[in-house]
């Protein structure tokens, strides 16, 4: 079985989940921040089971397909420009970018080969826009291939005890050893469902909007400034550090939006003189600027 995820971090988590062994993990070095946890807390944290199978049978399909031009190939110049837009501040060199898109191509080819060979496919989808876009893209990619596809849809809430419930916005928030607990949500994707989703992705490609978002449960083309109200509504009255502000937004709004997108839009507001850079407190950090709301005379 091929497991399909929609980010590198989710892929890595699933690779670990496929062969998860809590005894081996507990037998290794365990790092922590702040107060040292008790042995019981550590055991509870790493307690889990394997999803099963081979860790090589995991692919990451798509790169932030909710953002930018989707009219061309998944590894084409359009998507490479999106890479620059979102990650340019991280000083990726050409070699690293080339390797990133080579990995994209390899995973797409692995998925296509598996589908054509009759290997079962299991898609781990969430309502985060990048994940839903990835799911739609895969349905379009496999549209004409007769293959068995199952989908595990991430529930918004997962009761882990009688009095405790965990809230999720994307698969990256689920610990590797706990992924097996969500397997009961697995359902088969029918050929009709695959075709409907594929058609919708085709229309989104034709629209080719700057951004795609989930509105009333539906993946929809939206303008680039769609999420800007979240930024402007939460801007502090005093000076603030960009990194801390973005962290607050990510914690407050479970929308599946990346920190890179928030940073991109904040930079846009700086260019438009809506925000002022007071100083760059940490040149080594891409979000190290100290910012202030601009005051415009009426």
TrEMBL record:
Pfam family, one: DUF1835
This protein's name: DUF1835 domain-containing protein
The DUF1835 domain, residue ranges: 53-153
Coiled coil: none
Domain DUF3658: 184-282
InterPro entries per record: DUF1835, DUF3658
């Amino acid at each position: 079985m091929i497991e399909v995820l929609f980010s590198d971090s989710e892929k890595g988590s699933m690779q670990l989940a496929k062969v998860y062994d809590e005894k081996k993990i507990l037998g290794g070095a365990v790092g922590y921040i702040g107060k040292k946890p008790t042995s019981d807390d550590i055991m509870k944290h790493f307690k889990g089971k394997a999803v099963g199978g081979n860790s090589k049978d995991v692919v990451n399909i798509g790169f932030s397909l909710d953002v930018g031009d989707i009219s061309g190939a998944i590894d084409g110049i359009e998507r490479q420009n999106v890479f620059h837009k979102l990650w340019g501040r991280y000083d990726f060199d050409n070699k690293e970018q080339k390797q990133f898109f080579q990995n994209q191509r390899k995973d797409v080819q692995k998925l296509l080969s598996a589908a054509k060979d009759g290997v079962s496919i299991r898609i781990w989808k969430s309502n985060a826009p990048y994940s839903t876009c990835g799911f739609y893209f895969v349905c379009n990619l496999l549209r004409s291939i007769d293959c068995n596809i199952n989908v595990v849809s991430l529930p918004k809430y997962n009761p882990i005890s009688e009095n405790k419930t965990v809230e999720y916005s994307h698969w990256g928030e689920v610990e590797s050893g706990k992924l097996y607990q969500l397997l009961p949500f697995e359902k088969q994707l029918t050929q009709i469902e695959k075709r409907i989703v594929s058609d919708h992705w085709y229309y989104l490609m034709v629209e080719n909007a700057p951004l795609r978002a989930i509105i009333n449960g539906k993946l929809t083309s939206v303008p680039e400034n769609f999420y800007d109200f979240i930024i402007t509504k939460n801007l502090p009255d005093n000076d603030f550090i960009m990194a801390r502000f973005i962290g607050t937004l990510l914690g407050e709004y479970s929308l599946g939006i990346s920190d890179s997108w928030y940073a991109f839009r904040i930079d846009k507001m700086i260019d438009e003189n809506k925000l002022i850079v007071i100083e760059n407190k940490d040149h080594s950090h891409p979000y190290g600027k100290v910012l202030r709301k601009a005051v415009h005379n009426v």
